[in-house]
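As noted in the main text, all predictions were made from sequence alone. Below is one such record, for Protein preli-like.
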Amino acid sequence: MVKFYESSTVFQYNWHQVAQAFWQRYPNPHSSHVLSEDTVFREVRDNKLFTKRLLTKTNRVPKWGERFINNPKVGIIEESVVDPKTRTLTTYTRNVGYTKVMSVVEKVVYRESDDNPNCTIAVRSGWVDSQVFGFKHAIQAFGVERFRKNCQQMILGFNHVLSHLYPKHGQHETNVSSEKSSVQEAKDKLKSAAKRASDLVMPKANVMVASCQD
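Prediction:
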């Protein structure tokens, strides 16, 4: 039976920003395993953008896997459909090498968040299979875990690219934090000044009270 994995991620950027940044994901500090990317087909049909790309990736092979894979480099086919009307970007990827050892099929749907139009939700689904007799379940389990870790790296890398493409977005959040800090500092200064004034006034007040009692 094919192993299945699914996860969802919320990006703090609107769908248009995510859809534009998608084509500029590489390189980034978290994608050293992506060696190359080439667009082999692209056309607009029914107001949708269809694209096919070929990527070359590499992943470290565990010791037990060296008997099945002698070269860690593998080709990846990535097909995508951008629909500006429904504001969805759907991608399908699959490896084209070592498919009998382990085949990984992935589908990701980027769509506008129902709760916040300034955020984008990415739902990622992965299917891992193997045809190696006697090692099928072990390879599937390894594949799912590797897929999960790669998803985490992808999220870090994509956020890195988004933050560099749209620095004002992050700057706005920084400014809000700075404003809050400035307000807090002003409050602290006022409290400190009030305390110093109170410390100066109280002795004089005590003297006046004592004089009145005499």
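Strands lie at 3-11, 34-45, 48-58, 73-83, 88-95, 103-112, 120-129. The chain is about 40% helix and 35% strand. These features were considered when defining construct boundaries for the mutagenesis experiments described in Section 2.9.
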